TrEMBL record:
<protein>
    <submittedName>
        <fullName>Caffeoyl-CoA O-methyltransferase</fullName>
    </submittedName>
</protein>
<dbReference type="InterPro" id="IPR002935">
    <property type="entry name" value="SAM_O-MeTrfase"/>
</dbReference>
<dbReference type="GO" id="GO:0032259">
    <property type="term" value="P:methylation"/>
</dbReference>
<keyword id="KW-0489">Methyltransferase</keyword>
<dbReference type="GO" id="GO:0008757">
    <property type="term" value="F:S-adenosylmethionine-dependent methyltransferase activity"/>
</dbReference>
<dbReference type="Pfam" id="PF01596">
    <property type="entry name" value="Methyltransf_3"/>
</dbReference>
<keyword id="KW-0808">Transferase</keyword>
<dbReference type="GO" id="GO:0008171">
    <property type="term" value="F:O-methyltransferase activity"/>
</dbReference>
<keyword id="KW-0949">S-adenosyl-L-methionine</keyword>
<dbReference type="InterPro" id="IPR050362">
    <property type="entry name" value="Cation-dep_OMT"/>
</dbReference>
<comment type="similarity">
    <text>Belongs to the class I-like SAM-binding methyltransferase superfamily. Cation-dependent O-methyltransferase family.</text>
</comment>
<dbReference type="InterPro" id="IPR029063">
    <property type="entry name" value="SAM-dependent_MTases_sf"/>
</dbReference>
<comment type="function">
    <text>Methylates caffeoyl-CoA to feruloyl-CoA and 5-hydroxyferuloyl-CoA to sinapoyl-CoA. Plays a role in the synthesis of feruloylated polysaccharides. Involved in the reinforcement of the plant cell wall. Also involved in the responding to wounding or pathogen challenge by the increased formation of cell wall-bound ferulic acid polymers.</text>
</comment>
Length: 238
């Protein structure tokens, strides 16, 4: 068969993604509906040395859908970068909604901030420049914050995902949703370590351990979706 590396493959009734299929999804279903401020922020980030940090727009579309279905109003964002997923959430939740957004890097956030301001949604965002764990711990000191969040999106240091989960499971209400990004780690979770670039090995290992633990956690229901770099959608059940 010609050009197999670019073709999607069907295995056991599952379509494995290809570049062509990703492009098709973006062009058919995502870009025509992507809101203008998000497009602008994405384009302004495109030449950044770590532009690949930005949430995949098709995963973003799914996240926005989940926020809408949940009627989410109060959310947490761990790992902002220039703010693609943050702006997406801010545009999706109601006008009196609130997002606690945490990142160690304010400079990256400031690249996206003009687009957030222009979109008129800055008032929904409380950006905190900090390591995420102490902020989550501080929130938990206030009993009123416990179980008060509808949704959390986690997209920061993969070595801390389980620590974030242990805090967020208490901050998010029963029926609320936590989404973890990059849980397929470029597909390397399913490959032997010797084919993985050395610099990617540590967080591959963290991700493999996290995926195993989360699959055994009875406090949540999960869907491990092969979209973007893999997202794990967790719904708190108790
Ligand atoms: N969701 C973003 C991408 C986040 S990239 C988007 O859609 O564009 C990961 C971010 O996590 C980086 O900006 C990095 O500064 C931040 N980060 C890494 N370790 C962190 C930590 N311990 N606490 C808070 N933020 C952290
Ligand atoms: Ca990510």
């Amino acid at each position: 068969m010609e050009n197999t590396s670019k073709q999607s493959i069907v295995a056991n009734n599952v379509i494995l993604q290809s570049e062509d299929l990703y492009k098709y999804i973006l062009e058919t279903s995502v870009y025509p509906r992507e809101l203008e401020p998000l497009k602008e922020l994405r384009n302004a980030t495109a030449n950044h040395p770590t532009a690949f940090f930005g949430t995949a727009p098709n995963a973003g579309q799914l996240i926005a859908m989940i926020l809408k279905i949940l009627n989410a109003k109060k959310t947490i964002e761990v790992g902002v970068f220039t703010g693609y997923s943050l702006l997406l959430s801010a545009l999706t939740i109601p006008n009196d909604g609130k997002i606690t957004a945490i990142d160690v890097n304010r400079l990256a956030y400031e690249i996206g901030l003009p687009f957030i301001k222009k979109a008129g949604v800055e008032h929904k965002i409380d950006f905190i420049e900090s390591q995420a764990l102490p902020v989550l711990d501080k929130l938990l000191e206030d009993p009123e914050e416990e179980g008060s969040f509808d949704f959390a999106f986690v997209d920061a240091d993969k070595g801390n995902y389980w620590n974030y989960h242990e805090r967020l499971i208490k901050l998010v209400k029963i029926g609320g949703v936590i989404i973890f990004d990059n849980t397929l780690w470029g597909g390397f979770v399913a490959l032997p370590e010797d084919v993985v670039p050395v610099y990617k090995r540590e967080w591959r290992q963290s991700t493999i351990l996290f995926n195993k633990k989360i699959s055994e956690d009875p406090r949540i229901e999960i869907s491990h979706a092969s979209i973007g770099d893999g997202i794990t959608i967790c719904r708190r059940v108790c």
